[in-house]
Write a structure and sequence with these properties.
single chain, 247 residues, mainly alpha, 3-stranded parallel sheet, two-stranded antiparallel sheet, 5 strands, 33% helix, 8% strand
Length: 247
């Protein structure tokens, strides 16, 4: 799915390249795995399928089945929250959710969903939409930590999290404070991607909620182990935004 698809031509465009850009670690089902293999065989020219070489063409040449589900029931963000919301992400799935909920989609040059994405561009875009464009909420998505989990690289995943902390969370928090804005910020992953498994799991995730008007000094650390020991649990994750926005 691409927000920037050009329907008037035969060229399928996506920026960045549509996900996934590699084989998944394990097919979801036998049918899924078979269809993925078939999808790697270009439909034209016929000889290209013999050695599985990719067809370097600007035109769609192969189907690629990924995931399964039903059409979600989405409502305008402003209708549910009475807030103006924006999305900053390099991933088309997130952009699609934003379009489906009538949120503003912000494109950042150099944002690629990888370890070397344009962190500063994303942070600056978030500050601009909040302090200059009159928006109340911005969702800043980083794909790097998840991708490094899929790659099974401890070193790169640690680096991705450190860059998120140093080059996204810190400059946004400091920028809002410098602008004299009161704000609330929540930091969390949408799912775990353990290095040992290299795929998603359904385990609970830790979240950190910060309120600039009620700063506190705590001795705990933000991690899965300590979060699991608390009683501060939200069983329906989609309701977390109600805590953030104090709805």
């Amino acid at each position: 799915m691409s927000v920037f698809s050009i329907s008037s031509s035969l060229i399928l465009r996506s920026s960045p390249p549509a996900y996934p850009v590699r084989l998944p670690f394990v097919p979801t089902t036998r049918w899924h795995g078979t269809m993925m293999l078939m999808g790697l065989c270009p439909t034209a020219p016929p000889t290209a399928c013999a050695d599985m070489r990719p067809a370097f063409s600007r035109f769609a040449s192969a189907p690629y089945v990924w995931g399964a589900g039903t059409k979600p029931a989405l409502y305008p963000f402003t209708e549910r929250t009475h807030k103006k919301g924006a999305m900053i992400s390099a991933v088309d799935l997130l952009k699609g959710i934003a379009v489906g909920t009538s949120m503003k989609v912000i494109t950042v040059d150099g944002a690629n969903g990888g370890l070397d994405t344009n962190y500063e561009g994303k942070a600056n875009a978030a500050l601009d939409v909040l302090t200059k464009d009159g928006y109340d909420f911005v969702y800043v998505h980083l794909e790097g930590p998840d991708e490094m989990g899929h790659q099974g690289s401890v070193e790169k995943k640690v680096k991705a999290i450190e860059r998120l902390d140093e080059r996204i969370i810190r400059p946004i928090a400091e920028g809002l404070a410098a602008a004299g804005e009161d704000f609330r910020m929540v930091v969390l992953p949408d799912h775990p991607t353990p290095i040992s498994l290299r795929t998603h799991t359904a385990d609970n995730v830790p979240y950190l909620l910060y309120d600039s008007t009620a700063e506190r000094s705590e001795s705990w650390h933000y991690n899965e182990r300590e979060a699991a020991q608390t009683t501060n649990f939200i069983p329906e994750g989609h309701k977390l935004i109600e805590y953030l926005l104090q709805m």
